[in-house]
Amino acid sequence: MDAAGTVATAAATLVGVLLGGWLTVWNQDRISRRDAARHWRDIRLAAYRDFLSAYRGYLAFVQDPDSKITAVPHPSRADELMPYFDEDGRPYREKLEGARMAVTLVSQNPATRDAVFLVMRRVRAIAAARATQSPGDVPNALFVGLFAAHNAFVSAARIELGLPEMAGDL
């Protein structure tokens, strides 16, 4: 009976050690995954914030009466114009393009990427309209479309960041 008791005690101890080790590894893996998810959430939040800031700066430049903007037909979209800026506006365009690429790089959800491209197309349409019109003469429908695209982007970004949906218009 002594040998059986020793074996049972050793087996119970071994099972306890194995179970404790497995629980430790499982807990560390869970913590690591949570930290990685938090890290990627922070990266996405920064990219989305930078994109919103860049597009608002671009829009502010476009609405400035002193902005010099030209537009040419888009090479592949027959009904669309491509805006071009002078050296004062080029940094706004470059910042917006860089921010768009960052969002495209870090977003997981195709809806977020689609919303970014829609914002880009809508804000470019306003810039193209400004090439031939003063800021006050740009059709209001272009701004309505832009703000709808803005709201779609913010909604998609909030979903991707794990935030609750916002009620009503943003």
Description:
The protein is mainly α. The chain has one domain. 71% of the residues lie in helices and 6% in strands. The chain has four helices and two strands. It has a two-stranded antiparallel sheet. Strand 1 and strand 2 (81-85) form a beta hairpin. Helix 1 runs antiparallel to helix 2 (90-106), helix 2 (90-106) runs antiparallel to helix 3 (110-130) and helix 3 (110-130) packs antiparallel against helix 4 (140-160). The protein is rod-shaped, with a radius of gyration of 27 Å. The model has no long low-confidence stretch (mean pLDDT 88).
List keywords for this structure.
two-stranded antiparallel sheet; single chain; mainly alpha; 4 helices; about 70% helix; 2 strands; about 170 residues
